């Protein structure tokens, strides 16, 4: 391991805990297929406290993201944040843009030790955002919540889903980030699971063009940029450097101490604990390594066969397995799983074809594209 790098066989860069699947919204892209009511078998407050104690065993400063559903459906969130903060965890949250996200609750989470709050913007106007989220007024609530967070001294991250329905809004959403003073833009490239199956992904060449553009944004805007379920963002950065662009490839530090190394994939730098305690490589790869009620999350992450196999990039098949970028990228394991049922298959979002590779291409069976859409390095 290089000095200053992160040993992802020992600890995830990001540990997400889905506090609940309950949520008042019905967003088109919802991974969780959010429900109106809380599940009776959700991890309790005491079990959640134990989970946080397990997470602290990963090491000092472990990043924990409280997600949902809408985590604020639960009334123990501030207590969980305070406990995590006491344990030395870096606690962050991704609430839904609903009326539950009041200025009082934001302030109580900030007081409890929250380090960053993420809000979702999938459109740059009330019309486009609210249509995507399935709730009139969501856009205004989200902008208001971002302002309240800043007033409470909380750094704000904006999460955006990239798909055919949203991609043309990205430049206007970028402008909004500057207006609301966000520190980070997390750009999620659609994985067709849950309600997201009704959305259309962008084609591979467009995805690469968006990633090129995002690198330019990261160089010119005051906020950092990271991608989710698109580790080829790092391959794009390396190709830019090979073309003479010497800029950094994405370990952005937006000023709240939460750096993001690009190139992490499900099970390798990333782990997800479901509302009932199942440990998945990501929220978009619902294969369980076990349950935190039976084995600590540290053991499941470090020792389970599922996670170990995902961390060995030489296990990858198809063009990802033959790719010279597999150790810095590796492709979205979640998207490979969603398309083929095999988490080690190739990521169909990536247009890159390694030089000399003559095996099957992930899009051969889907849209009839032909080999050679991108050249090797
Ligand atoms: S082929 Fe796979 S490993 Fe190579 S850049 Fe594309 S997604 Fe990444």
UniProtKB/TrEMBL annotation:
The keyword S-adenosyl-L-methionine applies. Pfam families: Radical_SAM. GO terms for molecular function: 4 iron, 4 sulfur cluster binding; catalytic activity; metal ion binding. Residues 9-220 form the Radical SAM core domain. This is Radical SAM domain protein. Its cofactor is [4Fe-4S] cluster. Residues 239-259, 358-377 are annotated as: Disordered. The keyword Magnesium does not apply. Keywords: 4Fe-4S, Iron, Iron-sulfur, Metal-binding, S-adenosyl-L-methionine.
